[in-house]
Amino acid sequence: MIAAVFLIGTFLLALRKNLLIDEMIVVIALTATFLLSFLLILRNERLKNRLSYNATSYLRMMIVFIICFVIVFIGTFFADFFFPVMPLAFLLTVVMNGKLSLSMTIFFAALFSVISASGSFVLLCLLLVGTIGALMADYLRDEKLTLFTGLIIFCVSAFVPCLFIWLSYGTLSIDVLPSSLAIGLVSVLFAFVLFPKLVEADKREPTSAYDMILDADYSLSKDIRLFSMEEYEHAMRVRRAAESCAFVIGAKDRTAAAGGFYYRLGIMEGEPYIENAIRIAEDHCFPSDVIQILSEYPGDGRLPTTVESAIVHMASTSVTKLEEEYRKAPQTEWNQSMIIYQAMNELSAKGFYDKSGMSINQFLRIRDLLAKLDIL
Predict the structure, then answer these.
(1) Which of 346, 325, 348, 345 is CA-nearest to residue 336?
(2) Span 151-207, pLDDT tens digits
(3) Alpha-helix runs per DSSP H in 215-306
(4) Which of 14, 22, 107, 259 is most buried, most CB within 10 Å of its CB?
(5) How far is residue 100 CA from its own chain's centroid?
């Protein structure tokens, strides 16, 4: 969908400026070339947890790109030097990290310049203002906007284009003052009012990512049910146990819940289980900490390296042991606490969780909780 937005957007801009067929093909080809590289880097950045982990992130990103193309389209009706590239850079930074937003800002500045057949000074002006805008936006994600930063944003947006107009024509008319002040005010208002709200919404994305993959109607959850209801019920037991244990000791309960539910994800495609689980999780853009847990299943090849991974392994071991006992005999004929204590003590004696960062106190609290939980 993102590719379609770029290609259709570029085509409409080319129509707007009445480009010839050969010129239109060249511009679209240039867009496609940039897009291929961008999407490759985007996927890599997302898998390394440098972007928000919600499926709607791609949807939000696509919406932002549509808005950017609308801005570029509207910009073709105004003076080239005052194209609102800084607000565009702020907008892009909301859904991407600094590197990607900067590259995309440069792309839109270059696309506008090419479509408008502007001179080199227009391109240089937009690249400079856009680069500063992307850098300022990345800075403002973590810092509060002050009067000083607002003044910088205003001066760059309003007066840098004036300097390039002077370089281009050797003169500067008073007629450009309204456009200069207008674009400066628009940039400052965007930075003060809209940008903080968009950033705040973006910070809520990681929580939404876990809500999404833990939803009963999520596609992968449905796939597990279709594969085996027994496997689905096992996954739900591990999820509930892991989430409860993580909550009790103050660990990341949503991470533990997701890791517990998808712990045996690879079983749907058979061996190699771990590799298949990781591939499926990456294809669905799971959070990196959940993928880390899946990569340490079942603890034979790699011991748990995080508290959440250790919790999931303890929960999975407990659920599996109890399920095995239940199949052998009715629940009234065996003692859950005894089974859990024996299994956990054996793992602890082998140093199974030594690399996870879990303290002895946390281990004991989790063990006691698992012994008391109504798991089955």
Answers:
(1) 325
(2) 899 999 999 999 998 988 888 888 888 888 888 898 888 888 888 777 766 655 555
(3) 219-227, 229-249, 253-261, 273-283, 288-295
(4) 259
(5) 12
- Give the span between the Cα atoms of 139 and 149, in whole angstroms: 10
Q: By CB neighbour count within 10 A (0-12 exposed, 13-18 middle, 19+ buried), where does 48 fall?
A: exposed
Pairwise CA distance, residues 242 & 121, whole Å: 60
**Cβ neighbours of 367 (radius 10 Å):** 21
pTM: predicted TM-score of the whole model, two decimal places: 0.59
Is the CB of residue 302 less than 8 Å from the CB of residue 295?
Answer: yes
Helix (H) or strand (E) holding 46: helix 21-47
Q: What's at 126, amino acid-wise?
A: L
> In which region does residue 95 sit, left (phi positive, over 0), alpha (psi from -120 to 50) or beta (all else)?
alpha
* Cβ neighbours around 327 below 10 Å, total: 7
Query: Band of the pLDDT at 211, cuts 50, 70, 90?
Result: confident
Distance (Å, rounded) from C-alpha 294 to C-alpha 257? Answer: 12
146: left (phi over 0), alpha (psi -120 to 50) or beta: beta
Distance CA 19, CA 283 (A): 39
With beta carbons less than 8 A apart as the criterion, state whether 64 and 94 touch. Answer: yes
